[in-house]
Amino acid sequence: MMFPTSASVVIALLMGIVGGAFVIWELRRVLGYDPGNETMQAIAKAIQEGSAAFLSREYRVIAIFVVIVATVISTFLHWQTALCFVVGAIASAGAGYLGMYVAVRANVRTAAAAGRNLHEGLRVAFGSGSIMGMAVVSFSLIGMTVLFLMFNGNPNQLTYITGFGFGASSIALFARVGGGIYTKAADVGADLVGKVEQGIPEDDPRNPAVIADNVGDNVGDVAGMGADLFESYSGSIIAAATLGAALGAKSPAFIGLPFLVAAVGIIASLFGIYMVTGEEPKQSENGNDSILARIARFIGQYVIKIDENASLDDLLKALRHSVWGASVIILGLSLMAVLISGVSFNYWLVILVGLVTGNAIAYVTEYYTSYTDKPTQAIAHATQTGAATTIIQGLAVGMMSTVFPVLIVAAAILLSIWLGHKADGTMAAGLYAVALAGVGMLSTLGVTLATDAYGPVADNAGGIAEMSHLPSEVRHRTDALDSLGNTTAATGKGFAIGSAVLTALALLAAYVTAAKIDNLNILGPTMLPGILIGAMMPYLFSALTMMAVGKAAHEIVVEVRRQFHEIPGLMEGTGQPDYATCVGISTESALREMILPGALAVVVPLVVGHVLGKEALAGMLVGTMSSGFLLAVMMANAGGAWDNAKKWIETGQYGGKGSDSHKAAVVGDTVGDPFKDTSGPSLNILIKLMTIVSLVFANSFGSGWFNF
Amino acid sequence: MMFPTSASVVIALLMGIVGGAFVIWELRRVLGYDPGNETMQAIAKAIQEGSAAFLSREYRVIAIFVVIVATVISTFLHWQTALCFVVGAIASAGAGYLGMYVAVRANVRTAAAAGRNLHEGLRVAFGSGSIMGMAVVSFSLIGMTVLFLMFNGNPNQLTYITGFGFGASSIALFARVGGGIYTKAADVGADLVGKVEQGIPEDDPRNPAVIADNVGDNVGDVAGMGADLFESYSGSIIAAATLGAALGAKSPAFIGLPFLVAAVGIIASLFGIYMVTGEEPKQSENGNDSILARIARFIGQYVIKIDENASLDDLLKALRHSVWGASVIILGLSLMAVLISGVSFNYWLVILVGLVTGNAIAYVTEYYTSYTDKPTQAIAHATQTGAATTIIQGLAVGMMSTVFPVLIVAAAILLSIWLGHKADGTMAAGLYAVALAGVGMLSTLGVTLATDAYGPVADNAGGIAEMSHLPSEVRHRTDALDSLGNTTAATGKGFAIGSAVLTALALLAAYVTAAKIDNLNILGPTMLPGILIGAMMPYLFSALTMMAVGKAAHEIVVEVRRQFHEIPGLMEGTGQPDYATCVGISTESALREMILPGALAVVVPLVVGHVLGKEALAGMLVGTMSSGFLLAVMMANAGGAWDNAKKWIETGQYGGKGSDSHKAAVVGDTVGDPFKDTSGPSLNILIKLMTIVSLVFANSFGSGWFNF
C-alpha cells in the first residue's frame, strides 16, 4: 500500500505545530532571564525602538508591493495563487518579525547572563537564535501544509502553492536588501567618523550612529537572514513536490516525501537545540519538558563542555556537534520516511547527499574565512605592503574560495540526478532528486539557523556591555561569543547560497515543465542572449546595492560629523548624541534604495519571458544562477576573510591594533562589509526570486517577439 | 555562377601579402626616424635588451609546450592538425615579436619626434602600432590561406586548420598571462617602493625597477595584446569557415566569404592608417606610395588636424576618424564581396552588426573609464572618504559597466542569428551569421590594433623623456599621447572581450557540430554541473593570476628595497642602480607563474570532456563564456576607471597630487593594475582557448563516465 500524500502533509503540519509550541515555550524562557541594570535596559530600548520602527516601515512598503503583485496575480492567473502569495508573505514577515523581536530583547539578557558565566551567555543568545530558527521552519511548514490541505483534490493545488514561495521570496528580497543596506550604511558610517576621524572605539556611546549600527545587526542579519532561508526552505519543498507530481504512478509518495523529511527535520532540530541550551536544572525541575529534551540534555552534557576558559574552537565544536547530532537523527528518521513512502532507497542516499553538501560547503567556507587557516593569514600578510595589496589578496582569496563550493554543488547535482535516474529511469526523477537533496540539506535548518541568528545577538550584547561600562571580563565573554558568531555567520552564508542553487535548479526544472518547453537547446536562437543577460543580472544587482550602501553611508557620515561639530560636549561625554536622527537616515535610505533592485528582480524575468520568449527566460535563469552563485560565494568569503584578517592582526600579529598593517586591514574590512552583508547574500534571493517569478507566470510566456 | 572558395582564399592571401609589404615598408619608415641623443639611446637599449631577453625566454618555455601538444595532437589526431598548430603558434609568436621589436625602437624615436612637435610624435608612435596591427592580420591571413590551399581537396581541410587557431591561442594565453604578470609585478613593485616609500616620481632613473617597468609595457601591452587579437582574428575566420562548410549547397560561397571580408579589411585598415600617419611630404615625394595612400592622405588632411594645442579630445577624434573611415570602406567593399559570393544580402547586414557592435562596446567602455564622464568622477568623489569607499565605488562602477556590453553583445547575437535564419531558414545559418559578425567586427583590426598598440610606445617615450631629462614640453607632449593611449587601451580591451565572446560562441557551435552532439538540453544530466564548473574557471584563473602578480611584486619590492639600502649614493644620483636584476626577477617570476593557469586552460576541458562527457563540456564552455565575459569587462573597466580617477585628481581635483584623496586614488589604481592588465584581459583568451581545445579534440570525447 502506498503511503497517502495527505498523511505526510498532516504529519508535517503536526510537526510544524510542535515547532510553533517550542517557539512560544522558548520565548517565555528567554524573556524570563534578567534584563540587566537600568543603563543596559535604556540602551536595549533604543535598539528595540529603532528595529521595530524600521521593520514596521519596511513592512508597510512591502505591503504595497504585496497588494500590487497579488492584484496582478489574481487578475492574470488565479485568486488561489494570489491568496497563497499573501499567506507566504505574511508567514515570512511574521517569522522575521518574531526573530527580530526576541533578538533585540535577548541581546541585553545575553550581556547580563555573560556577567555570570560564558555558558549562560551562550544559552540565552543561542536560545534567541533557536526561536528564529524554529519560527522559520514551523511557520513555513504550517503555512504550506494548511494551504495544501485547503486545496486538496484540486488539480492545480501545487501550482497555487508556488504562490506561497513567491510571497516568501518577495519578503526575503526586501528584507535582505533593505536590511543589508541599513546595517552596512550604519556600520560603515559609524566607523568612518567614529573610529577613523574621532579615534573613539567601536560601540562607543558617544558615537551618534552607534544605535543605528546595533539596530542594523538585527534588521539585516536576523530578519534578513531568516527571510532568506524561509524562502529556500519553502522553495525546496514546493519544487520537490511539484517535480514529484510529474512522476506518474508513484507521485503521491513522491509529493509526500519532502513534507515527511521536513517533519523529521523539526524533531532533529529540536534535539540539536537542546544539546546546546540543555543541562539546566531550573527548567528540568519544573517538569514541562519532554523526554526528547531530557535525552538531548543528557547527551549534551557529555558532548558539549563549555567552561570559563573555552576557546573559540571549543565553542565552535559545541555548535557543530549540535548540528551533527541533528543530522544523524535526520538520517535515521528519513530512512523510515523513505521506507514507509515506498520509494527507492536511492532517495535516502539523495537526502544524505544534501546533508553532506551543506556541511561540506560550511567546512570550506570556514577554511577560507577563519584566521586560523592560511587564506585569511595570507591577507593579513599582504597588509604589510598596504591597502592595495590587502584588497588584491582578499579578492584573490574570495575568487579562489569558489572552487570547492562549485565542485561540491556540481557533484551533488550530478549524484542526485544519477541516483534519481537509476531509481526510476527518467531525467524527471533525476531532477526530483536534486530538489529532494535541497530539502535534505535544509532539513536541519531549525538548528543551523539558530547557530546563525545567535551571532547578531552576541554582537549586540557586546555593544551593550561596552556602552553600559560593564566589567571587562563581561566584554571578553561577549567577544568570545561574537567571534564564534562571525564564523557561524560565514558558514551560514555558504549554506544559504548552496541551498539557493539547489532550490533554484529545482524551481527551474519545475518552470520548464510548467511552461511546456520541449526544446531547451543551449544553442537555440534566443538561449545564449538569455544566458548572457542572466549572467549580467547579479552584477547589476550588486552594483546597485553597493552604490546604495555607499550613498547611505555618506549621508550618515555627514550627519555624524554635524553632531560632533554642533552638539557641545559630545566628545567629553557631557553632551547627549541624537541617536534617532541616524536611525531615521538609515531607515529612509535603506527603504529608498531597496526599491529599484527589488523591482528589477521581479520585472526583468517577466520582460525577458515576454520579449525573448520562454526558452530565453530559461537561459536567463541558468545564467543568473551560475554567475550569481560564483559572485555570491566570492563576495561572502572575501568579506569574511578580510574581517577576520583584521581580527587576527588585532590579536597582536603584524604590529597589532593601530599599526599600519591594521590600518590596511581596516580598509579591507570596510570593503568587505557590503560584500558579505549586503550584496553577496542578496544574490541568493535574486537567484531564487527570479526563478519563482518565472515559475508562477510560466503559463503566460510564449515564444517571444522574434519569429524564427 | 557561384564564386569559388579558392578564389576568395587566394584574394585573401594576396591581401595578406600586401599587408606584409606594408609592414616592411612602414618598419623602414619608423626606424628611419632620429633615435635621439646618447642618453636616450642607452635607456632604450636597456629596454630593448630586457624585452628581447624576456620574449626569447618566454618563447623557449612556450616551445616546450608547443612540442608536447603537437606530439599529442599528431599521436591522437592527425599530423596535419599538428602542423597547423605549429604554424599558428609560429605565426602568432612572429607577429608578437615583430610588434615588440619595433615598439622598443619606436619609443625612443617618439620621444625625439615629440621634441619637434605633437603630430610628429603621434606619427612615429602610431606608425609603430600600425606595424603591429598589420603584422597580426597579414601573418594570420597568410598562414591560414597557405594551409588552406595546401590541404585543398582534402575533406578534413577545415578540421586541420582549427589547429592553427589552437596554436595561436596557446601563444596568446602565455603571452597575455606571462606578459601581464611581468608588467604589473614590475609596475606595482616599482611604485610601492619608489613612489610610496622613497617619494621619487614615476619613471625616475634612480628606481632600480624602472627599466623592468618599461619592459613590461612592451611585453604585456604590445606582445600580449597582439597575440590575443591574433587569436580572435584567426578564430573568427576559422569558425565562420567551419560553420559555413555545414550549410549545404551554397557552402563554397559561405566558406569563402569570411576570407573575402578579411581581405577587404586589410585595404580598409591601410586606408585608416594612412589617415593618421599621412600628410608627410618626404614620403610622398619619393614616389613609392600607392594611389590609396595618396587618397587617404588627402582626406586625412581635412579630417585630422593635430596642432600643438590639440586636446585629448582632438587626438581621440583623430584616431576615431581613422577607425570610422576604415569601417565605411569595409562596408562598401564587403557589400561587393557579399554580392559576388552570391549569398543573401542579410549577410552584409550581419557584417554591419559586427562593426556596429565593436564600436558600440568601445563607446560604452570609454564612457565608463574616461574622467570626463560621471562614473569615473564618482570614484574620484569617493576618494574623499578614503581608500575603502574608493574601492567599493570602483567595483560598483565596474559591475555596472557590464550592463550595456552584455546587452549589445546579446542583441548582436540575436540579430545575427535572426538574419542568418531568415536568409537560409536554418539555425546553422544563424550560427554561421554569428561567426561572420565576429569576422566583421574584427575586419578593422589592422587599424584598431594600431590605435591600441601605439599606447605603450607613447608611455615608454614619456619614461625615456623623463629619464633622459628632456625639456618639460617634450614630457607634456608625450603625456598627451600617453593619456590618449590609456583611453584607446580601455576601448581596445572592450573590443577584445566583445570579439572573444562572438568568436567563442562560433567556435562552440563548431564544436557541437564536430562532436556530433544532438541533444544539448540545458537540463540534461551533466549540463548544469558543466555550466557551474565552467562559470568557476574564470574565478580560479583570475585568483591565480592576481596572486601571481602579488607574489612577483613582493619579490621586486624586496629587491628594490635591498638596492636602496645597499648601493651607496643611489638616492643622490651618484650610485648606479642594478636594473638587470629587477628585469631578471620579473622574467623569472612571470615565467614560473604562467605555467599553472596556462596548463589549466588546456587540461580542464580535456578532463571534463572525458569524465563528464561531451555535453557537459559544451555546458562548461557556455559557463566559462558567460561568467568570463562579465568578469573580464568588470575588471577591465574598474581598472581603467580607477586609473583615470587618479589622473583626474592629478589635474587638481579634490586637492590634487599629494592630498589624502590622491592617496586613496593610488590605492584604487594599484588594485586596478592586475585587474585591467593581467587577470581581466587573460580571460578573453581563457574563453577562446578552452573552446578551441574542445573543438580540436571534439572527436575524442564520448558520453563520459556517468552512465544515464
TrEMBL record, chains A, B:
<keyword id="KW-0630">Potassium</keyword>
<keyword id="KW-0472">Membrane</keyword>
<feature type="site" description="Determinant of potassium dependence">
    <location>
        <position position="489"/>
    </location>
</feature>
<keyword id="KW-0813">Transport</keyword>
<keyword id="KW-1133">Transmembrane helix</keyword>
<protein>
    <recommendedName>
        <fullName>Putative K(+)-stimulated pyrophosphate-energized sodium pump</fullName>
        <ecNumber>7.2.3.1</ecNumber>
    </recommendedName>
</protein>
<feature type="transmembrane region" description="Helical">
    <location>
        <begin position="520"/>
        <end position="541"/>
    </location>
</feature>
<dbReference type="GO" id="GO:0005886">
    <property type="term" value="C:plasma membrane"/>
</dbReference>
<keyword id="KW-0460">Magnesium</keyword>
<comment type="similarity">
    <text>Belongs to the H(+)-translocating pyrophosphatase (TC 3.A.10) family. K(+)-stimulated subfamily.</text>
</comment>
<dbReference type="InterPro" id="IPR004131">
    <property type="entry name" value="PPase-energised_H-pump"/>
</dbReference>
<dbReference type="GO" id="GO:0004427">
    <property type="term" value="F:inorganic diphosphate phosphatase activity"/>
</dbReference>
<keyword id="KW-0812">Transmembrane</keyword>
<dbReference type="GO" id="GO:0012505">
    <property type="term" value="C:endomembrane system"/>
</dbReference>
<feature type="transmembrane region" description="Helical">
    <location>
        <begin position="124"/>
        <end position="151"/>
    </location>
</feature>
<feature type="transmembrane region" description="Helical">
    <location>
        <begin position="594"/>
        <end position="613"/>
    </location>
</feature>
<feature type="transmembrane region" description="Helical">
    <location>
        <begin position="157"/>
        <end position="175"/>
    </location>
</feature>
<feature type="transmembrane region" description="Helical">
    <location>
        <begin position="620"/>
        <end position="642"/>
    </location>
</feature>
<keyword id="KW-1003">Cell membrane</keyword>
<feature type="transmembrane region" description="Helical">
    <location>
        <begin position="253"/>
        <end position="276"/>
    </location>
</feature>
<dbReference type="GO" id="GO:0009678">
    <property type="term" value="F:diphosphate hydrolysis-driven proton transmembrane transporter activity"/>
</dbReference>
<keyword id="KW-0739">Sodium transport</keyword>
<keyword id="KW-0915">Sodium</keyword>
<dbReference type="GO" id="GO:0006814">
    <property type="term" value="P:sodium ion transport"/>
</dbReference>
<keyword id="KW-1278">Translocase</keyword>
<feature type="transmembrane region" description="Helical">
    <location>
        <begin position="85"/>
        <end position="104"/>
    </location>
</feature>
<keyword id="KW-0406">Ion transport</keyword>
<feature type="transmembrane region" description="Helical">
    <location>
        <begin position="431"/>
        <end position="450"/>
    </location>
</feature>
<feature type="transmembrane region" description="Helical">
    <location>
        <begin position="322"/>
        <end position="340"/>
    </location>
</feature>
<dbReference type="GO" id="GO:0000287">
    <property type="term" value="F:magnesium ion binding"/>
</dbReference>
<comment type="function">
    <text>Sodium pump that utilizes the energy of pyrophosphate hydrolysis as the driving force for Na(+) movement across the membrane.</text>
</comment>
<feature type="transmembrane region" description="Helical">
    <location>
        <begin position="685"/>
        <end position="706"/>
    </location>
</feature>
<feature type="transmembrane region" description="Helical">
    <location>
        <begin position="395"/>
        <end position="419"/>
    </location>
</feature>
<comment type="subunit">
    <text>Homodimer.</text>
</comment>
<dbReference type="Pfam" id="PF03030">
    <property type="entry name" value="H_PPase"/>
</dbReference>
<feature type="transmembrane region" description="Helical">
    <location>
        <begin position="347"/>
        <end position="365"/>
    </location>
</feature>
<dbReference type="GO" id="GO:0030955">
    <property type="term" value="F:potassium ion binding"/>
</dbReference>
<keyword id="KW-0378">Hydrolase</keyword>
<feature type="transmembrane region" description="Helical">
    <location>
        <begin position="6"/>
        <end position="25"/>
    </location>
</feature>
<feature type="transmembrane region" description="Helical">
    <location>
        <begin position="61"/>
        <end position="79"/>
    </location>
</feature>
<feature type="transmembrane region" description="Helical">
    <location>
        <begin position="494"/>
        <end position="513"/>
    </location>
</feature>
